[in-house]
Amino acid sequence: MKKDILRSLPSVDGLLQEEHIQALILVYGRESVTHTTRHILSDLRESILGDESAAAELSPSTIERILKGIENHLKIKYIPSLRKAVNATGVILHTGLGRAVLPPEAVEAVNDVITGYCSLAVDIESGRRGHRDIHLENLLCELTGAEAATVVNNNAAATMLILNTLAQGKEVILSRGQLVEIGGSFRMPDVMAASGAVLREVGTTNKTHLKDYAAAIHEETGALMRAHHSNYRILGFFSEPGIKDLAELAHRHNLPLIDDLGSGALVDLQAFGLENEPLVRESLKDGADVICFSGDKLIGGPQAGIIVGRRDIIKRIRKNPLSRAFRTGKMTIAAMEATLKLFLRPDQLTERHPVYRMFAESLPALNRRALRLRRRLRATVPEGVDISVIDGRSQIGSGSAPVETLPTRLLRIFSETETPDNLAGKLRSCSPPVFCRVQKDSLLFDMRTIHPKEDAVILQALTDVLN
Length: 467
Known about the structure:
Elements: H1 2-8, H2 12-16, H3 19-28, H4 30-50, H5 60-78, E1 86-87, H6 104-114, H7 137-144, E2 148-152, H8 155-167, E3 171-175, E4 181-182, E5 186-187, H9 188-195, E6 198-202, H10 210-216, E7 221-227, H11 243-252, E8 257-262, H12 280-285, E9 290-294, E10 305-309, H13 311-319, H14 322-325, H15 330-342, H16 349-352, H17 354-360, H18 363-378, E11 385-395, E12 405-415, H19 420-428, E13 434-435, E14 437-439, E15 442-446, H20 455-466
Parallel strand pairs: 1-13, 3-6, 3-7, 7-8, 8-9
Antiparallel strand pairs: 2-10, 4-5, 9-10, 11-12, 12-15, 14-15
Helix pairs in contact: 3-4, 3-5, 4-5, 6-15, 8-9, 18-20
């Protein structure tokens, strides 16, 4: 019986002659359509071998299902895996959703350099080959007070590059309270080992004194280092030396002081009701010799690792063979230059920078948008769906200001007929996909991370899913 069913299946060549398949070939190409057809037929044969009832007999509807299966498979295959999404989670710098939303100026700058050639590593005045840092160095020096600067592809690379340049084969003294793990595989002891430097832990988790650093210095010491706590805080009985004291000690022994600031704030966050993150300019002023920080966290630009500091140290870093492996491309540089220029006018950040607009969004404004969405949804959703607006807290995200949150307003959706996990899955299947919070029996949509222009997208997605 199974053999008869298998023999009755159409051949690949036979299906390729179908008018519907010929149309698909014009769109997707013969090779791709042929491969997909073989795949669909193979799956069907396996299904028949496993369950005779899977295809009791070949019929016109079976052929139609095969043709439709080929078409659907091709459509799914060619949908971009990386695509625009709506962030309703309330995490402003959401690592999974691409961290910072780029300012319009940065998007425009990227579009400008990708439509043809660009002056990536050529000096326009002389026409000679130059260094790609020329596009960012002067800006970074003006914003931070540094003598020189360079940019690599992320802050993990920046940390690795600094350690490898300044302390390969030598000890780097670091407090035990700063042996951070950020993300899946970025653990400070592992990065230190991979760079070729030797970790010398001092102090305890909650208390490290300047004398602990002083006692650890000897002829094999290559540098002193501070690593920002980033995604956690130690509260209570806690103390560690400041940059000024560490710098004085390091310089007394002719050693460089490395400051890994993580998020890298260029402006005071207290203006937005957040705790103050260490400012890059203040760290340099207090004596740090070289500092690294992220470009896609509190700066709100593309993924990058920024290194600023003494001119002689930056020069050595540029000459390190690893700097080529870690360097950035034209799109990152274009977006970063446009983003950094916004910080030349900090008084306009909330108007021109999406991240700082979200920081500054007022509670009444968020409430008005949430109530408007609730009113419109109530006219479209079926009975058994409860829609309300409640208080909530938004997170900064990505290890920036980890214990700080901002008050917000949440649109809460409860359905009597569907689980929140099922509804959340359907929302992620929308175009564009919508990501929200699942909390207990409800879905929560944080208005702070939803751009006002996306309110209509949320309305349409929820209307479709709930109906």
